Structures are given as structure tokens and as C-alpha cells.
Predict the structure of 2-alkenal reductase.
Amino acid sequence: MRRLWLLFAQTVTVCLGILFIVATLRPDWLHVSRKPAAEPTPAPAAPRSAEGAAAPLPYVSYAPAVALATPSVVNVYTSKQVRVPVVPLPNDPQLNRLFRELPGFSRRKRTTNLGSGVIVRADGYILTNYHVIESAEAIEVALSDGRQTKAKLVGADPDSDLAVLKVDLPNLTPITFNGDHHVKVGDVVLAIGNPFGVGQTTTMGIVSALGRNRLGINIYENFIQTDAAINPGNSGGALIDTQGHLVGINTAIYSENGGSLGIGFAIPSQAAHKIMEQIIATGSVTRGWLGIEPQDITPDLARAFGLSGDDGVIVATVLRNGPAGRAGIRVGDILLKINGQTVYDTIGFLNQIAPMPPGHKITLTIRRGGKTSEVEVKVGIRPRITRP
């Protein structure tokens, strides 16, 4: 038995040796078929034209829109004389006021400011921000084609921060308004202006939000918010859509360091167009006014007055000889409706009254002493407010 086992072991060893030698030196004798490795999936062929040449891949460019709007955007330069102290003023307000009255304590210095504007009519009217030209003694504009000229102020509306300038130049290119097209959140927009005075610049972003208010920038606020880069010098410039049409006037930014943080605000073109037409026609803007100061109704105030909701506004102040005061409106009255239209808050109240023509009679639904009644009021003209 032992001899058979040794013979078997030797035979197996010899066979394995022969198999190793053949597999190493002549593997074709073994007729081993190998499965070819899977070839990588070829990339899809580029599209080709009818002639067989590779067609270019599609790309997105806003160059046509920029080319259409750029000739309508101008740089605005203003200058004025201001008095500056010769030495630093003390922090104490009383001493500050006393030193300012001393002769020779201050000297006159000319300061300059820069911004942007938009040509809105071929006869030379330019729309810009009021804060760009506020208190300016001289205004100059520079066009994209290199021409420069002096401009005169036609009129301004500080409540909406808009102003209209006029220049006498031929061959002007007015911008095209977006008309009835409603801007939507997510729409691509382009901001054109003169940031930091470096020259005309275009930035891109989207519409981030609509109807922004309560920002403390203007009295009447209904801003388009965008993340297109808007920096100092962009004020008064154009916010356009991808067709080159004006959708807003760039007005303000939210910033902690003076630069763009991706939160910019523009006045919608529809509102700017209405104000512009009034300024061109009359030199100012006329708005309805009741002579009261409204206050929002908080949940606590609603419970205190026994209201079921927080709609309406509370009359916080009444001007004695104002329209509402003459009609019998009192402090503490709650205004619920104007001509049957619900008043939701103070912003809505101002926007409801502003379009009312002066002299027009309106019906206010008020709540006083737990009872609801109606009062007829004759709308007055909102006084012009001069900024300090």
C-alpha cells in the first residue's frame, strides 16, 4: 500500500511540473480561450453639420441684451460745496454746536459724488436716484460713447428716491421698458452701472424676491431684490432682463462693509415709469394724503381692542387741520377699509392712499368703542418732505 501511494505522489508531481512548463513556454498548446475585457462605452459623438464637420456646442450669452441696453446707461457725476471743520469736533453735542458757530473753525470744500442714470426718452430725459443728485450744485453725465455734457434737474421725488435729469444731446438711445411683463423670482437679470467709478460694468444674478419693504430706505417701498452685484456708483443704473428691457432702477444694497453682499434692491420699472411721467409733466409727484400716522396692529393690540384678527391700522397721530382730522377721525380709531378694500398694514395703507387724486372723497370704515362705522374723507395733497 505504501508503494502505491509513493508512485501516485510522484506521478502527480511530474504531471504538475510538465503542465507548468507547457503553460509557461507554449500556452497555445493548452487551447485556453480568454474572454476579452469589456471595452469602455464610447462617448457620444459630437453633433455634425450637413457637411460632416463637428457643430459647436450650444452656449448661453447675454451679449445681445447688454449691447441693446448699454447705450442707454450713463454715468452721473455731481459736485457741491460743503463746510468741513478745520480740527476734529468734540463728541459733546453742545460743544459741537458751539464750535461750529465760531468764525474760522470750518472751511468750504468741494465734494464730488458719482452714480448712474438711464436714458428714458430720446429727447434727453434721464432717470436716476434722488440721493445721487441730492443738494448737487453741478451735474454732469457721461455716455457710453464717450460724450459728456452738463445736465439740469427736472424734478425729484424723495419719497421714492427717484429724480429726472435733462440733457441736450442728439442721437440718444432710450432704453426699452419691460411693459406688462411681470418679473418673477428666479428670472435672470443684469445690473449695469458705474461701480466705484471704474467705468460702465455689467453684473449678472437672479431676482431673489419681490415686494421688499420695511427696509427704512424710502417712505414708499416695493423693491425687487437681486443678487446681481450692486456697489456704490451703481445707484440709478439699469436692472435689465435677458432681452435688454428695463425691469428696475438699482437703488440700494444691504452691506456691512460698503461692498456687495448679494442683496441689492431696485425700484420696479412700472412704478418708476409712472413717477417719471409725473415729474416730466409737472416737475413733482402728487400723492394722496389723510394727515394721520398709522400704526400696525400687533396680536397684543388686537386682544386689547377685542379684534378677531390683526387686519387694519390704528390711528396713532392725527394732524388737527388735516383731511382726516376735519372729518372727525380720532387717535385710537382703527381703520379697517378704504372704499370697501381691506387695509392690512401701514405699508398697504400708504400705498392705497397715495394714488388717490387730491380732492377725491373716499369712505373709511373705522372701529371706535367696539362699534363699526363709516366716515367720508376728502383726500388732501401729501406735503413734500425735505430730507435733513
Observations:
- Helices lie at 2-25, 63-69, 93-100, 130-133, 269-282, 299-304, 323-326, 346-353.
- The first helix runs from residue 2 to 25.
- The two ends are 121 Å apart (CA to CA).
